[in-house]
Specification:
With about 220 residues, the chain is of the alpha+beta class. It is built from six helices and five strands, in the order αβαβββαβααα. The strands form two sheets. The chain has a three-stranded antiparallel β-sheet with strand order 1-2-3, with no helix packed on it. A two-stranded parallel ribbon has the order 4-5. Helix 3 links the parallel strand 4 and strand 5.
Length: about 220
């Protein structure tokens, strides 16, 4: 579902790709459409401002600096600032008494790149969101001991649905229409029973207070 319509993901790639394969796919796309020549890597944007005739031209003055310190000025018809909504990591260190004397290493998931640094070591992943779950799975294969810490439960969805198909293929307009027709509680109960067939969330103390439908809506949005 995440591939570009004009450049399908290679058929031999797995349904759920490692981040390295996703990066390879992006590079193949850029090479195929000869986009690389328009991309400037390792370049700092020093200033973005409207031109003096912006009300008529709609153009922007942009000043940049490359890794060698060379500065350049450019004129563009449009500017998009795409830094992502997770650019500022949330590190609530005040919630961890003694963190200032902790001798180990701690960092935000944004800075996680490879599991090799943690081979044969003990690690704790805090948070059971998408990033925390993915990192915990990857680290579990190399660490001496891995803990996943969460302050509340969560509905754990398997990546593979019925008949071995990727689960996200079922998050479509048909299912969304059924959700609108069936009563809220009944629809939630169907999903929760399906998830508990894989493992009993209550048995593992993972059953959340919110219903499965809320989780589904978050994923769908």
């Amino acid at each position: 579902m995440m591939c570009f319509s004009d450049f399908p993901i290679p058929g031999h790639y797995p349904n759920f790709m490692h981040n390295s394969l996703i990066m390879d796919y992006f590079r193949m796309y850029a090479d195929n459409f000869q986009l690389t020549k328009y991309i400037r890597f390792n370049t700092k944007v020093l200033q973005v401002k409207q031109r003096s005739d912006f009300s008529h031209s709609g153009q922007w003055d942009v000043e940049t600096e490359n890794k060698d310190g060379k500065k350049e000025k450019h004129i563009f018809d449009a500017v998009m600032i795409c830094i992502g909504h997770h650019c500022h990591p949330n590190m609530p260190l005040q919630d961890f008494p003694g963190i200032d004397t902790f001798k180990g290493k701690y960092f935000h998931s944004r800075d996680y790149k490879t599991p090799e640094e943690w081979r044969n070591k003990k690690a704790v992943v805090i948070g059971i969101g998408n990033s925390g779950g993915d990192i915990a799975v990857e680290l579990s294969r190399v660490t001496k001991q891995l803990y996943l810490s969460t302050r509340r439960g969560a509905w754990v969805l398997n990546r593979v649905g019925d008949n071995g198909l990727p689960l996200d293929l079922f998050f479509n307009r048909v299912l969304n229409s059924v959700r609108r027709i069936l009563p809220f509680g009944f629809f939630c109960g169907l999903g929760e029973r399906q998830l508990n067939r894989r493992f009993d969330h209550a048995l593992y103390n993972l059953k959340p207070k919110h219903r499965y439908c809320v989780c589904f809506l978050e994923l769908h949005l």
